[in-house]
Write a structure and sequence with these properties.
21 helices, Rossmann fold, alpha/beta, binds zinc ion, 499 residues, four-stranded antiparallel β-sheet
């Protein structure tokens, strides 16, 4: 259906098109409605949009520029017009166009050979609101354009600019672009390739199957480098292709102190309890395992009536002690009480959590026997949740003991925490409120965290398995004569080496 021009003038005459509903701050008709339902042309819609200037129809701009991008290639004169209006909104509106409109405008400009105008708009956007964190989606089309056009030095300078103004770095968007950047640089500029690889390492980006397909097709022509895909097992003890062992990224003493200070601050008061006050002697060649009590006790137990399994924890304690290691257990203090609240954690699968039903259990004689025995051996540590989340106790204990070892010049990691908890909430808090980088937290986890699972025989728990951290870090690695890129999920790698 064609948009009837006459009805436009009628609407204008009645002041309907320009009318802004102050209450809802919506322009009628909405740009989306015009384009999608009324099938108005871009030119007709633009004629309406450009009249909406006091205030500007910012939401309408998002839709309009998006539809323009979908309709490319556009007439050069029309691109000039819509760019001029975009500039007006950018200069005159208090906030300027949203990231959605920016992303479309920047893509249209780069496609029509006006990358310099896109750069100017983006710089102006940041100058105008320097306190607002820039969103990567506005910058992505220009970075991708430079890479595709093989203007790699410009791409690198632009990337440094994006970083310097604190732009968001959504891994699923930034990662694939940097992978294509690295593949373009590999054949032409090895120093630049190393720089890009370094960014991928800092982001701890792992390649998706799409990235791998792109990499393999893009690097086929690079005569002096070959890429080989290798399974996890083929990387141990060294890469089967290039004979280089993968590297494990360390955590320095200063970084441990930083982690320790951050967790201390996260607790309302100091948690200097038994873990730090009386660190027990670790026999030569052995380790100190700190067990995340609830995480182990709730293994496979998150269902209605699922119990807190003191016996799992106890079985694991005995298993580890039998190997000559030292064990501590962090446990919320209320589990030491007669009656305790039973935590039901899996909200998605468990309707009882959603309805807010609370379960309580009364300690049995067996439970009391476990607790009394742990207390007698002073291996249980009461985490007082009114002070801090019990996770913070084992985090603190681990950092404390690791830092103490590091200061004593002990290089091997003698302290492990046994937990499957990814501590996602704490990572957000450490990163955003305490300036601890995610990379550092991941390096610490890669060093100290031991996974745990139950081994069943005839549907009964026969043993508890520990899963040691990997001997290498799953990050992009530069070995000088070869490079390695981790692939997500499969555990496999790309090895880039000379044939
Ligand atoms: Zn290799």
């Amino acid at each position: 259906m064609q948009w009837p021009r006459r009805s436009f003038s009628l609407l204008r005459a009645h002041g309907i098109v320009r009318q802004l509903s102050q209450k809802s701050r919506r322009f009628m008709p909405e740009v989306h409605y015009m384009l999608r339902r009324q099938k108005a042309s871009l030119e007709e819609t633009f004629a309406v949009l450009r009249e909406r200037t006091a205030p500007y129809d910012i939401k309408g701009c998002d839709t309009f520029y998006f539809f323009c991008l979908q309709a490319t290639p556009l007439e050069p004169a029309f691109v000039t017009d819509i760019a001029a209006f975009f500039r007006r909104v950018l200069e005159e509106d208090a906030q300027g166009p949203h990231d959605g409109a920016f992303s479309s405008m920047v893509a249209i400009l780069t496609q029509t050979g006006r990358a310099d105008v896109a750069v100017e708009f983006l710089k102006r956007k940041h100058e105008k609101n320097p306190s607002a964190q820039p969103h990567y989606r506005s910058y992505a089309p220009l970075l991708e354009h430079y890479i595709q056009a093989n203007e790699l030095e410009k791409a690198w300078a632009f990337w440094k600019y994006i970083q310097s103004i604190g732009t968001t770095q959504p891994a699923d968007k930034v990662g694939p672009t940097l992978v294509s950047f690295a593949s373009a640089a590999l054949g032409t500029d090895i120093a630049l390739f190393r720089e890009v690889l370094g960014v991928l390492r800092e982001l701890r980006y792992q390649l998706t199957p799409e990235d791998v397909a792109l990499w393999l097709s893009a690097t086929e022509q690079h005569g002096d480098w070959t890429t080989t895909q290798l399974a996890h097992a083929a990387m141990l003890p060294a890469c089967q292709k290039c004979s280089t062992p993968l590297t494990k990224l360390p955590v320095s003493t200063a970084e441990l102190d930083q982690l320790l200070a951050a967790v201390e601050t996260m607790c309302i008061e100091s948690t200097s309890g038994s873990l730090s006050a009386t660190p027990r002697q670790v026999p030569p060649g052995k380790k100190h395992y700190i067990l995340d009590g609830p995480n182990i006790a709730y293994l496979n137990q998150n269902f209605e009536g699922g119990a807190f399994r003191f016996d799992y924890v106890d079985q694991l304690v005995k298993q580890i002690e039998a190997d000559g290691h030292v064990v501590s257990v962090t446990m919320p203090a209320y589990y030491f009480e007669e009656v305790s609240y039973l935590s039901v954690k899996t909200a998605a699968r468990n309707p009882y959590k959603k309805t807010g039903t609370r379960y309580y259990r009364t300690r049995t004689a067996e439970d009391k026997a476990f607790i009394d025995a742990w207390e007698a051996a002073s291996l249980a540590f009461r985490a007082r949740r009114e002070v801090a989340s019990d996770d913070l106790y084992w985090m603190y204990g681990t950092f404390y003991l690791l830092a103490m070892d590091a200061k004593a010049g002990i290089e091997t990691t003698r302290v492990n925490v046994v937990s499957n908890d990814e501590i996602k909430d704490h990572i957000v808090a450490l990163d955003e409120q305490h300036g601890v980088s995610r990379d550092l937290i991941e390096r610490w986890k890669g060093t100290a965290r031991v996974g745990v699972s139950l081994g069943f025989v005839a549907r009964k728990v026969a043993h508890i398995r520990l899963h040691d951290p990997l001997p290498f870090s799953r990050v992009a690695q530069d070995h000088g004569d070869s490079f390695h890129l981790p692939i997500a999920d499969s555990g496999s790698w790309l090895c880039i080496s000379r044939p």
